[in-house]
Design goal:
By secondary structure, the protein is α/β, with parallel strands linked by helices. Helices cover 40% and strands 20% of the residues. It folds into two domains: 3-174, 3-Layer(aba) Sandwich (Rossmann fold), CATH 3.40.50.620; 187-277, Pantoate-beta-alanine ligase, C-terminal domain (Pantoate--beta-alanine Ligase, Chain: A,domain 2), CATH 3.30.1300. The structure holds pantoate. The site of pantoate has 10 residues, from strand 2 and helix 7. Pantoate is lined by residues 29-31, 59, 62, 129, 132-133, 151, 154.
Length: 282
């Protein structure tokens, strides 16, 4: 049975006991509305660490004024049942006041990674993510923290924050969970109508096509990006970006760079969908 804790002091006390017993602690931060992709993260955590902690906190600081903070699905009972079934030991589910007792003041910014791609369309989003993740890391003080590779830019921001601030936590990226038709698992898929859900596979199709172009030696990245974008737009979505970048720091790659990632975001009805594919150039 997963034990639910709402307060920082109570969680710290519980985890201190485990630390004294030299048990390793793993942490999976989430915003809830858990799906099979989250369960991959939980499984990785439970398998690797003696004690596993998940958090559910819909972080107001990472939502823009016109985004879906109020509408974001809150499904605590169903989430808790899933966490229990995976053998997660603790669920930390704080209130906004617990995390931001005096509002927002000190903030964590990772400027080299935060204002491009997702960050260009969602100003302040990654500062909100980095700030809340730093707070959660300070609360949980886990040995390892697990993040999905679907949110590739988020993972890059967090890795860089951890490295810059010398935080004593290892970050483990977990592969993107997908439905049989290739659609990446995401809480925001629940915003799609049936028709829109039929259309959504076009995103991963375009990413796979672009990755195959690169592995088969096409060096015209500009043309691949344009075609990828067209492919998604023709499917009835509105592409925000479709970009080939260096896997490590998300800068535009030269042809000597081999480790690449293709990232895309597209609007489909009410849902902003993001996805990516990692690719090694020949
Ligand atoms: O990926 C998410 O669910 C959130 O951005 C995170 C990492 C839990 C921070 O609020």
């Amino acid at each position: 049975m997963t034990q639910v804790i709402h307060e920082i002091a109570a969680l710290r006390e519980a985890l201190n006991e485990h630390r004294l017993n030299r048990q390793s602690i793993g942490f999976v931060p989430t915003m809830g509305n858990l799906h099979a992709g989250h369960m991959d993260l939980m499984r990785a955590c439970v398998q690797r660490c003696d004690i596993s902690v998940a958090s559910i906190f819909v972080n107001p600081m990472q939502f823009g004024p016109n985004e879906d903070f109020d509408a974001y699905p809150r499904t605590l009972d169903a989430d808790l049942a899933q966490l229990s079934s995976q053998g997660v030991d603790y669920l930390f589910a704080p209130t906004v006041r617990e995390i931001y007792p005096d509002g927002v003041n000190t903030q964590i910014e990772v400027p080299s990674l935060s204002n491009i791609l997702e960050g260009a369309s969602r100003p302040g989003h990654f500062t909100g993510v980095a700030t809340v993740v730093a707070k959660l890391f300070n609360i949980v003080q886990s040995d390892v923290a697990f993040f999905g590779r679907k949110d590739y830019q988020q993972l890059a921001v967090i890795r860089r924050m951890v490295s810059d601030l010398l935080l004593p936590v290892e970050i483990q990226g977990v592969p993107t969970g997908r439905d049989a038709d290739g659609v990446a698992l995401s809480s925001r898929n629940s915003y799609l109508s049936q028709d829109e859900r039929q259309t959504a596979p076009v995103i991963y199709q375009a990413l796979r096509w672009a990755a195959e172009q690169i592995t088969s030696g096409n060096l015209d990245y500009g043309q691949i990006e344009r075609s990828g974008r067209e492919h998604i737009d023709q499917g009835g979505l509105k592409t925000d970006y479709f970009e080939i970048r260096c896997a490590q720091n998300l800068t535009a790659p030269g042809h000597s760079q081999k480790s690449l990632v293709i990232l895309t975001a597209a609007q489909l009805g009410k849902a902003r969908l993001i996805d990516n594919i990692e690719v090694t150039a020949p």
